[in-house]
Amino acid sequence: MAVSSNNDWQAGKNVLECNKYMLDNQLYCDVKFQVGKAGRLISAHKYVLASRSSVFAAMFYGGLPETSDVIVVCDIEPEFFEILLSNMATSFNDDWQAGKKVLECNKHMLDNHLYCDVKFQVGKAGRLINAHKYVLASRSSVFAAMFYGGLPETSDVIVVSDIEPEVFDILLRFLYYENGEVTSTTVIGTLYAAEKYAVKELVNLCRSYLESNINEETVCDILENSRIFSMTDLFSKCLIFIFRSKSCAEKVFESQGFLQCSKESLEFLIKDDKLPLPEEMIYKSFIRWAKHNCAREETVNEKSADMRKTLGSLILHVRFPLMSLETFWKVAGENEVLSDKEKIQISRLIVGYSVKDTSFITTPRRTSKPVKLQIMRIKNETTDCSWNVQGSIDAIEFEVNKPLLLHGLVLYGSDSLSYTYTIEVKLLSKSKTTLAHVSEKRRTESTKVFQVNFDEPCNITPNERYTAWVKMIGPQCYRGDYCDCVDYKDFIFKFFHSNESTNSTNVISGQIPGLLCCLEE
After folding, report:
1. What separation in angstroms does the CA of 364 have from each of 248, 269, 356, 361?
2. Which of residues 212, 231, 259 is at a domain's end?
3. Tell me: the pLDDT tens digits for 42-52?
4. Which of 54, 97, 153, 194 has the highest count of CB atoms within 10 angstroms of its CB?
5. Residues 345 and 250 placed together within one structural domain of the fold
6. What angle do helix axes 102-111 and 165-177 make, rounded to 10 degrees?
7. Residues 381, 493: one domain?
8. In angstroms, rounded to a whole number, what is the distance separating the alpha carbons of residues 4 and 21?
9. pLDDT tens digit string along 285-344?
10. Domain ends where: 71, 99, 127?
């Protein structure tokens, strides 16, 4: 069969599919058999044969390895020999290999360093790691070119100084048996290694891990790396996360991760009209960033001139003319980051004078207004006001597919014209950590439903499970007839039974008819 002209044929294939492709297309074969009475030549790979058969392992890597250019197998006909080779590439075999699938054999070969034919000197410390050319070439077009291309690597030891051993091990485990376990400390290094060796499936795995771990502390690091690795979708999702609310943007700009951002990434943030922060906070955050970067450079001091040099053109994207005159002189007039000429120019713009050839932006940011609304899970309007609330817990679990801010809960009241309850409310994480707590207090209301607001809104992470927890003491209240899923535009809310509930509230009936959310529209 003709060899494919696709130089990245490994992309999208798992280990078994790569093995089959290598066999079918006779790529990088290193052993030949003369098979059957007619002596038909069939090429194969020593690695696969030895990893699946103790006989072949002894033949190629034993005390007296086979040295013939062509191995004669006259007692098996070609069609049966091909079936044997195909099964060895994709299914089971004998001895230590017995009962193991291909991935398990690969793992055994890697873990025990059996029949390795290539060595890597990895990381700053130069740790030696053994591997098999066949497996690497079968899973990566970069390794295929390295070992079997026009100018194959001939060194006894291949130096890989830009990847640390822990990450190189993750790469090998993925190539050999598709184990893609990454952590917050290894994901960026693994992403770099996967990009370097064109392992697209591992790149996608790292991207998914980063996307699912976006929060106020991590988003700057993820933004930075998505820019470096040209992951435009992930980069956009980071921006959307930061811009979704003033509260969220403030926490991001106050985070340690913000200090690690590059000037290029910060420019993307500050130039965007959707950044929902007052200009004075943006300026203070940039001064903090500049001080940090000046301190990191031994040749640079935290002087105003050095900070201005570090900030460069970033300072021109702070929209000083949108500040009040008092605020501007309070936050920016105390240092010399801006020149006297620039301060006068900005002051004139603030009070309404036109200034020729100004470099400072006077256009307001077009931040979207957050919409606070009640997400109600009510299926049918209720007239039943017989739900007892005498201190037992009403609770329900929920999750949502997109990030949002949760401001509080919507609860049922009584049918009296005026009623009073003693109420305590909590929001719990999946691990039962309290994320928000409204302490026990008396509430007098007169409507069928009423809201209980948290002191501070809570960031809700997509597809994470949360528990709404309520303890009420007072007159009987209304009970709801509920659905387990609510769609609102692109938001999908799902509700689940909670073991915290001791008052019978569940997915289909009881208290807690809704969530008080803040959505960006």
Report:
1. 20, 15, 19, 8
2. 212
3. 999 988 888 88
4. 194
5. yes
6. 150
7. yes
8. 9
9. 999 999 998 888 765 666 778 888 889 889 999 999 999 999 999 988 878 889 899 899
10. 99
